[in-house]
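User: As part of a screening pipeline, I want to sanity-check one entry by hand. Below is the sequence and the SMILES for 1-deoxy-D-xylulose-5-phosphate. Please return the complex as structure tokens so I can compare it with the automated output.
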Amino acid sequence: MKKISILGSTGSIGTQTLDVVAMHPDSFEIDGLAAGGNTALLLEQVRRFKPRRVSVASLELADDIRPQLPAGVELYSGDEGLVQIAAGGDADYLVTAVMGSVGLRSTLAAIEAGRDIGLANKETLVTAGHLVTELARRKGVNLLPIDSEHSAIFQCLNGENVEDIASITLTASGGSFRDLTREQLQGVTVEDALRHPNWAMGAKITIDSATMVNKGLEVIEAHWLFGLPYEQINVLLHPESIIHSFVEFRDSSIIAQLGNPDMRVPIQYALTYPRRLESPAQRLSLAQAGRLTFREMDFARYPALKLAIECGKAGGTATTAFNAANEVAVARFLRRDIPFVRIEEILEKVLERHTPESHPDLEQIEECDRAARELAQTL
Ligand SMILES: NC(=O)C1=CN([C@@H]2O[C@H](COP(=O)(O)OP(=O)(O)OC[C@H]3O[C@@H](n4cnc5c(N)ncnc54)[C@H](OP(=O)(O)O)[C@@H]3O)[C@@H](O)[C@H]2O)C=CC1
Ligand SMILES: CC(=O)[C@@H](O)[C@H](O)COP(=O)(O)O
Ligand SMILES: [Mn+2]
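Assistant: Here is the complex for your manual check:
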């Protein structure tokens, strides 16, 4: 029986994690749940999964739900609430599924407390990968990837020697606008951008897929998770999202992981590793899929991907600034404050004005995050 806490239980990954938990009641129980503002769904989850501890984004929200909580459930709020759910209680496993670098301090606190992490929240590794991976190494904590591409690579590498890896390749669907030219991007709407061809996900990551920022964040995430230099990390367009990623070894063998696009599979594998359990996902029939197609990545079509990789190579706070600027730019696009193409322009402008600091500590990371957000908000 694994005792699990979830940061972001009301989101796309959070709810699918609870689907997995519900399917295997003899394997998992819930210790803590942290939500943002969706208190109605959180209360439903409390009734069904009986956590001992919950948290919401603010004190006002906590005051709203306090009378409706069963006696004995501990209630927290704000950033401190995230830390309490991540590192308090007696869970032995944390799923980090909040959106954005808001997950950083709580993830570090959970690692400090010796908890294994199922990592969906890629922004945490992008903003401070060196701090997270170094602390996990010192504490002997496992970082188990939930992101589909990283789960795929993790599964392909099972038992392999890192020196035998020639390269890893992350596949990319191309996002909502993959068949549009750059000129055609000018008038696209929020609704268009939120229509991902293969995956049903939260709003922010769906926009990131359309700009290809998601793949940029994933290249940086892969660098930290697998300890590989950027030169050994490739990206390939694969519109069907059936091959979730692959590894090429020095003897020229390629091992890939395949399946229908369903996040419950990588979520469950991160929870059950190194074992596997039955899954609700529909089995893949290659005969029905018929044809899998691939295209070389066009970096001129997706300049934000190129910029993300440059930031990864620059290191230090460059990726922190990139991530923070992107979080703000995407939020502005979703509020209809800026057009889609302005997201890329904001990223470029923020990075032009950013002087990276190498080996930043947590305070420097947080200061850089704050400054990049402020600039991205004013551009
Ligand atoms: N969705 C997917 O298929 C995939 C997602 N990921 C990554 O997983 C992470 C989560 O993505 P996704 O599930 O799509 O996102 P969603 O937007 O669907 O969910 C985000 C969750 O975080 C909560 N939240 C947001 N802000 C706060 C806060 N300040 N304090 C506490 N909770 C907060 C939300 O609460 P509420 O709704 O109550 O406000 C919600 O539960 C992202 O990093 C994403 O890149 C990676 C691979 C695939
Ligand atoms: C499901 C998942 O892992 C997402 O990160 C997915 O990869 C998004 O798809 P693209 O970024 O390839 O469009
Ligand atoms: Mn992914």
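Points to compare against the pipeline: Residues 329 and 342 are 8 Å apart (CA to CA). The chain is about 45% helix and 15% strand.
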